[in-house]
Amino acid sequence: MTAILTNYATEKRDNYLSLKDGAQINFNIASDTLLTVTDNYETLVADAAALDNEIADLRQQLSASSNMPADISQLNEDLRNALIAKYHLVGALADAQERLHSANLDVDHYQQDMIVFDKALTLAEAELATAETMAARHTEWTSVDVENEITIVRDNATALLADNFVADPEEAINPAEILSQATARIEADIPEVLRHHGEARATLVTDNMSASLAAKNSALNHSLTQVASHTGNHGLVIQRWAELESAEKSLKHYALTTVRQYHTAIELLQGIVDSSVLGDINNDAIHAAALAVDDDAVTTEVALHQARAAVDAKKIDVDTAIIHAVVNDVNADPHVDADVQARQAELAVLEGDLLIAETAHTQKLSTAMDLWEASVPDYIWNNLHAYHQALDVLNDVSTTVAGPLNTALTEAENALVTAMRAADDHQRLSHYLTSVTQVLTEEYDYLLSANRSITLSALRGDF
User: Fold this and answer.
1) Which residues form a coiled coil (predicted)?
2) What is the pLDDT of residue 78?
3) How far apart are CA 110 and CA 191, in angstroms?
4) Which domains does the chain have, with CATH numbers?
5) DSSP secondary structure letters along 193-237
6) Among candidates 115, 27, 114, 103, which has minimal Cα distance to 442?
7) pTM of the predicted structure, to 2 decimals
8) Scanning 17, 65, 166, 407, which has its CA 20 to 30 A from the CA of 84?
9) How far apart are CA 107 and CA 360, in angstroms?
C-alpha cells in the first residue's frame, strides 16, 4: 500500500527534474547559438554597409567627366564585381536573419520549457511529500502491534456475542458478566412488547438513515463519474482521489478506533448495570399502562411507523433520481425524466397508504401508547439505546478485518496512479503541442513576411 503512489510520485519527480535539467541544457546551448548567430548577422550587416559605401563611391567616380575610357572600363568592372558581392551578401543576410529568428525562437521555447517544468517539478515534489506522509501513516495503521491489539478485542467481542467468553482471572473486570447483567436489566426494566416495539421503530429510523447516506454517497459517486466523463483526465483524477480518501478513511477508522470502541462498548454496558434500579412505583406505573402485542394501539402504530418509513425511503429515491437526472442532462427538466416520474408515482401511492395509517391510529390509540411509553423513565430508555449501541459496536468489532480494507486501499491507489499517469501524459503532450504550434506559427509568419525578398534573391541568383 501507498508504495504504489510513492513510487509513482518519485518517478514523476525524477522525470520532471530530468526534463527541467534537459531544458536548462538546451536553453544554454540555444543561448550560445543565439550569441554566435547574432555576431554573424551583425558582421554581415556591417559588411553590407561597407559594401554599400563602396558601390556609392564607385558610382560617384564613374560620374566624373575627367575619366578616360580605360578608367571607365575598370570602374565598370569594379562596380559590377561589387554589385555581385552585394547580391551574394543579401542572400547571406537573408539566411543569417532566418537563423537569428530561429535562434530567438529556440531560446524562448526552452525558456518556456524551463518555467513549465519547474512548476511541474514543484507540484511533483509536493505530491511526493503527500505520498510519503500517507505511506508513513499507512505503515503505522497496518503494523503488527496494531493488528495484534485489534485481534485481541475482536476475539473478545466474538466470544461475548457467542456467549463463550472466558474471563482472565487477572483482569479487574469480566466483560461477560457485565453483558449478562446489562441484558438482565434491559429485559427487566422494559416489558418485552414495549421494548420490541421501540426497537422496531428505531430500526426503521436507522434503516432510513442508512438508505439516505447510501443514496447521498451514490449521488456523489455518480456526480464524480459525470465530472470525470466531462472533464477528461483531470476529472478522473479528482474521482480517484476521492475513492482513495474514502478507502483510507475506512482503514484509519479500523486501525485507530477498534480497540477504543470495544472498551467503550463495555463501558456502556457497565453504565447500564450501575444505573439506578427501578422502584416499585415506576414498575407499577409501567405495568398499569401496559398493552398487549395485538392491541389496536400497538398494531396501528406499527402500521403507521412502517407507512411513514416507506414514504421517507421513497422520498430519498425521488431525490436521488432527480440528482441523477440533472447530472445526466443539466439543461433538461428533471421532473419530466421517466425515472423521476416513476418514483414520484410510487411515492403518491405510499402517501395514500400513509394517510390510511394515520386515520387508523386515532388520537385515543395514540394517547394509550404515549402513556405507556411515558411511564418508562428517560434513563431507562437511554439504557436501552446504550445497550444496542454496545451490541452494534461489538458486532462491528467482531466482523471487521484488515484484509478487505487493505485490498480496497490498494485498488484505489492503483486506480489513482493510472489516472494520474494518463493526466500527466496528457499535460506533457498538451505543452509540447502548444509549444510546437507556437514555434511553427511564428516560423510561418516570418517566412510569409520574408517571401518577397527571398523570391527576389532567388530570381537574381543571390544564393
Assistant:
1) 41-68
2) 85
3) 83
4) 3-141+422-460 (1.10.287.1490), 174-421 (no CATH)
5) HHHHHHHHHHHHHHHHHHHHHHHHHHHHHHHHHHHHHHHHHHHHH
6) 103
7) 0.69
8) 65
9) 86
